[in-house]
Amino acid sequence: MQNELLDDPMDTGAPAAEAAAADEPLPPAHGIDREVTPKPAGNPDLMQQSLDNPAIPMHLIEKRDDRRESCDDGYSLTVNESAIDIESLACSYDSNAFFLRARFIARHCPILRADAYISLINYLKEHTTDITHYVAFFNELESELARKEFKNRQLNFQIPLRDQKWIEENGATWQSTTDQLQAEYKRHKDEGVKESTRRAMEDLFQHYMMAGKIDEAIRLYSRGIRDYCTQLKHSINMWINWMEVAICANDWGKLDTVTNTAYRSLKDADDAEKNSQQSQQAPPQRGENAPYMVERDPNAPIQTLTNRQLIETALAKCLAAQVLLKLRNKRYSQVVETILQIKTECLQSKWFVTSSDLGIYGMLSAMATMSRADLKLQVSGNGTFRKLLESEPQLIELLGSYTSSRFGRCFEIMRSVKPRLLLDPFISRNVDELFEKIRQKCVLQYLQPYSTIKMATMAEAVGMSSAELQLSLLELIEQKHVSLKIDQNEGIVRILDERDENAILKRVNVTCDRATQKAKSLLWKTTLAGANIHSISDKETRPKRKNQKESAKFDRNFGGIDVDEDPRGIAGPSGLSDDFNIAYDQQPQQQVQYLEDLGDI
Amino acid sequence: MTTFFNKLFTGASSSSSAAASSGMDLGSMESLCAAINELCSEKHVSENVGELAAGIVRKNKELFEKKSNDVEAFLLHCSPNVGSAAMVAAIKGMFDTSAAKNNETGTDRAVELLNHYVDENNFVGGHLKLVPEIIFPLLRDVGLYCLEKKNKPEIGQRIIMKALGSMFPRNGSNAPNVLTSAHGVLFACALETKDYASVEPFIDLHVDEIANENCIQDQEKSDNRERDFGDVFLGRMKKGAAFGSQPVAHNPHLHPKYVLDYLYNGACILIELKRFEDALFLLEICVGMPAFSVQDQHLDSFKKYVLISLILKGKVDVTENGDKSAIRHFKTKSPEYKQFSEIRFSRSSNTHSAVESLVKSAKDRLRKDGNTEIAKYLVVEMKKKTIMSLTRMFTSIRISEIEELAFLKSRDQVTELIGQLVEEQRITVRIDGDMVFWTELSPVPSKNDVENKIRIVDHLNTLLHEKNTTMKAGSGRMRPSVMYNEDEGLSMPPTESKFFS
């Protein structure tokens, strides 16, 4: 029912086939919804029966939960150390940010699993209507408590009781509320009032988010939410919601698209705001130069400040989201550059990443990629980074040890903070690589003044075992960062002199060989050209190219796509659908008028 | 020799005896023979007799096809010192006529005659070169006939080698390296006979010229076209002449597929000879040749290029192979080789195990492509590369660590690989207990060697500049549609010879 309402082509303008394809992932989720929240809301007995039969709903719940956790399921990580205080986590992060991190910890840290699940359960009950995750986490908690290894373990939180009444009440009301909100949304959409449609859409979005139905929320926003945002604050709120829901869903592709588009829009709004402030003597006017501005009283400084704050907050969140993306894509040098652009004072304190998180990400990325001189200038000597790391004294010491060549202390700190970083869902996958890069840089720095050095001495200085040191040296050699040879018999490392005459002769010889090869290849081509041989086969024998049809198809499709919209192009037809609806509504009147004119004749 | 050929080509018979017994008139061929032999007289300069004979042959080409029964008599009476071009034209006429009529006896006899005269060194190589449109197609067709029809590639190989050897001697002379359509067939025969060493001298990495096997026919066509225009449009002769001369300069000297044959088959032979660097060079040229549609050999070249590149470099530099869209097309056509092309050797990544897995999973495709042996060699070479990378990082190392760092399965495998590398003179090894002392044998070039190479680079650079200048000044800048004449002009309508008139 709900899908039919939302997927009506006349409403959104989306092709029916595309809508069907987009709905393919729905059946399992929809099936779960039906099992957990049956339609007859007024009949609690049916709900009780479905909950009393744990096989089917619990299996479906587990299945759905596993599907949503597909990104983490492929990541096998186990941290056997309680490196994070769950209670502090709840104080540092809010709403979905806490949910995301606590769930990650529950999956990958057996010691903190029970505490994490208890905290999650309490959060869900107090702040959401997400009975799906509530039941799933309760099952996980019970399984954890039933394990033999858990008997001697002490919990930091009180084990909650399953609140069956809460489950029943929310399950009963959720579907009716959903139907009501969907009907409201459709009604406003049919009426063609953008502001009302936007508000209804927003209510439905929040409803989905509260119930933990992230996929539904994303799908809703992908149906042209931008067309209904007529004010700057609404656009900003839309971008922030979209980014947050993409992060919650682990949809990095969507996040990339949204942040890029949002950044351009917000920069345009920012520029417009600056222009408006510069011409504050004259009243601002709506127009192409100020697409996001609303006419307002120039004597209202609070409104101006509010808009300004909104834009800067949104920009800060957008850049922070891009930091997560770059970290995910292992673009460490860009991570540092992006962090330096963020106005962290505008960043919400309990968002998905805090100032401290950004400081940690930036510092580690800088240590792994920057030279020592750049590191001192852009990180150690940068007030912004110092401010970001002011609550992380251990990491400040790490940076100082690194720049001061106190490698043993540096590695000691790295080992101590590693468990905590591994439990951060946004940097966990990068920790080993970053640490390895830092370690290699330390080894390179240590080797610089020597031509021969004992392995044992070096291992002691850098705080590694001989085996670990050898592995690091091998990696450095293979990456061509250093040229040396290891003599295991003597236990020494000899640095090779690249400026040696023999080495130079070899390099020149290789260069000449390469140049000769290239020249001979070109001579072949000139010989063929001289014989009027320009291609192997004749142009007339060329088979018909398939991409010609695809190119034509692309040309047709390209005309209907707004490049600033969602790449799937759904919003484009949605934007056109309004005009189409208006035209369609006006068409009968035209016909009637024409008939009337004919009647007069 | 005749007896030997009679045993090989069963059913062959002497057409000359039959002709003599039948009492056929040999007047036309006899006159031609007399005319050619007269070139030996004192009134002609010895240096020009070959060219004069070639001119006579071109003007009387149709006669050889019409009088194919008189070919043997003509060969008996014609003097090879001046009539080599005419003799090969006669044999070609006999061969083509018989082939057109599916007369196996005639084609066998033609091959026998050609082999006899070539084997006896009767032909003057310099004169044969004057008729490239005759000699090279003949050698090509005879080679293909022996290879495919008679399943006797060794005969075709010998004929082509002797003929090419007489035309382009390889005894240290400074003669230019010429690419002909016969070379590709020669290499194909060698691949069948597995006699690689004898054809190796004919594989040139640097080709100075491509034999013009089409130019003469085009010139004659142009002449005929001019006459036709002159007869019909008497008052517009100049325009007709200008129009008729245009196509001459832009016709390819050789059908491009023969270049492809040269490159691909030559590379295959070099691979068999373990000359992988040279093979890679030819394959790279082959893969980089532009084409409107991908040929089978084009794709096969890419496949071999991928494997050989991995053997030599441990990676595939696809960006240097010209058109990227072509490379993408190759990869689409051959997904298994796409996986190979994405490999980059890295000891720490245990590349040799990955390659071995790939080879096992793609063994059917490799067998169909005839690349199984190369793939096996690749697997072993990857393991050797792993050992070599360790020799560059250690001056001494424990045997147990070699096994661990090289990701090998046993100490015996380590020992075997090290032994092979020592035999190939790639490393030197001394074992003291559990410790291995080794070093890579990479010769250091002397200053003179480097200076010589620098001079070579300068020379090549100068040569490139000269060729570029020539191309800009000439017709190289014009790139008309490529047109080919598959029948090589032998099907032209007969015309009365000026010589006889």
What does this structure look like?
The complex is a heterodimer of chains A (601) and B (501). Chain A has 29 helices and three strands. By secondary structure, chain A is mainly α. Chain A has a three-stranded antiparallel β-sheet. Residues 1-73, 283-305 and 544-601 of chain A have low confidence and may be disordered. Chain B has 501 residues and is mainly alpha-helical. Chain B contains 25 helices and five strands. Chain B has helices spanning 2-8, 15-22, 27-37, 49-59, 61-66, 71-77, 80-100, 104-119, 125-128, 132-149, 153-167, 181-193, 215-232, 237-245, 256-272, 276-288, 296-313, 324-333, 335-341, 351-361, 363-369, 372-391, 399-405, 411-423, 447-473, and strands spanning 178-179, 209-210, 394-398, 427-432, 435-440. The longest helix of chain B has 27 residues, at 447-473. Mean pLDDT of chain B is 74; it is low at 1-27, 216-249 and 475-501. β2 of chain A pairs parallel with β3 (394-398) of chain B, so a sheet runs across the interface. Chain B: It is found in: Cytoplasm; Nucleus.
Outline:
The complex is a heterodimer of chains A (601) and B (501). Chain A is an all-alpha fold.
Identify the biggest protein-protein contact and residues per side: A-B, 47 and 70 residues
Terminal CA distance of chain B reads 40 Å
The succession of helices and strands of chain B, N to C, reads: HHHHHHHHHHHEHEHHHHHHHHHHEHHEEH
- Which strands sit side by side, in order, in the main sheet of chain A? 1-3-2
Discrete helix count of chain A = 29
GO biological process, one term (chain B): mitotic cytokinesis
GO cellular component, one term (chain B): COP9 signalosome
Subunit structure (chain B): Component of the CSN complex, probably composed of csn-1, csn-2, csn-3, csn-4, csn-5, csn-6 and csn-7. Within the complex it probably interacts directly with csn-2 and csn-4. May interact with itself.
Pfam families (chain B): COP9_hel_rpt, PCI
